[in-house]
C-alpha cells in the first residue's frame, strides 16, 4: 500500500464544499463543508463550518459543527461550537467549547467516500 502524502491547505485558501480523503490534512484555511479524513490538524487560523469525521483531530482553530473522532484534542486556542463524540478527549485550559461531549466505547467509523467507492468498484 502506498503512503498518502499529507494535504496542506494554506491560510489563503477557502473551500466551499466537503473534503474527503484517506490521508492527513493540515488545515490553515477555511472550509465551508464537511471534512472526512484519517487525521485532521486544524491550525490557529483554520476554520471548518461543517462536521468533522476523523480518526484523530487536533483543533487549534475554529469548528462550527459536530466532531466525531477516536481521539480529540482541543488546544488552548480552539473554538468549537458543536457536539463531540470521542473515545478519548483532552481540552486545554483556555479552549472555548460550546456543545455536548459524548464518550463512545466503539471506535468512530472513519471510512471515506473514496474508500467506499473502491470497495464497490471491487
Low-confidence stretches: none
* Beta strands, count: 15
Shape: globular
The oligomeric state of the chains shown is: single chain
Radius of gyration: 14 Å
- What share of residues are in beta strands? over 45%
Structural class: mainly beta
* Beginning-to-end CA distance, first to last residue: 16 Å
Largest sheet: 9 strands, parallel
Q: How many separate helices?
A: 1
The overall average pLDDT, rounded, is 89
Please write the string of helix (H) and strand (E) elements.
EEEEEEEEEEEEEEEH
Overall tally of structural domains: 1
Provide the helix percentage. under 10%
Description:
- The chain has 122 residues and is mainly beta.
- The chain has one domain (7-112).
- It is built from 1 helix and 15 strands.
- It has one helix at residues 113-121; strands at 7-9, 14-16, 19-20, 24-27, 30-32, 35-42, 47-49, 52-59, 62-64, 67-74, 79-81, 84-86, 88-91, 96-98, 101-103.
- Strands 1, 3, 4, 6, 8, 10, 12, 13 and 15 form a 9-stranded parallel sheet that branches. The chain has a 6-stranded parallel sheet with strand order 2-5-7-9-11-14, with no helix packed on it.
- The radius of gyration is 14 Å and the shape is globular.
- The chain starts with 6 loop residues before the first strand and ends with a helix.
- The model has no long low-confidence stretch (mean pLDDT 89).
Amino acid at each position: 500500500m502506498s503512503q498518502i502524502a499529507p494535504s496542506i491547505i494554506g491560510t489563503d485558501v477557502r473551500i466551499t464544499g466537503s473534503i474527503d480523503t484517506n490521508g492527513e490534512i493540515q488545515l490553515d484555511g477555511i472550509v465551508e463543508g464537511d471534512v472526512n479524513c484519517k487525521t485532521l490538524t486544524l491550525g490557529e487560523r483554520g476554520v471548518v463550518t461543517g462536521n468533522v469525521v476523523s480518526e484523530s483531530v487536533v483543533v487549534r482553530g475554529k469548528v462550527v459543527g459536530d466532531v466525531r473522532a477516536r481521539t480529540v484534542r482541543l488546544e488552548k486556542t480552539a473554538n468549537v461550537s458543536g457536539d463531540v463524540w470521542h473515545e478519548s478527549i483532552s481540552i486545554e485550559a483556555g479552549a472555548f467549547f460550546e456543545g455536548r461531549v459524548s464518550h463512545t466505547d466503539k471506535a468512530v467509523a472513519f471510512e471515506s467516500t473514496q474508500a467506499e467507492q473502491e470497495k464497490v468498484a471491487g
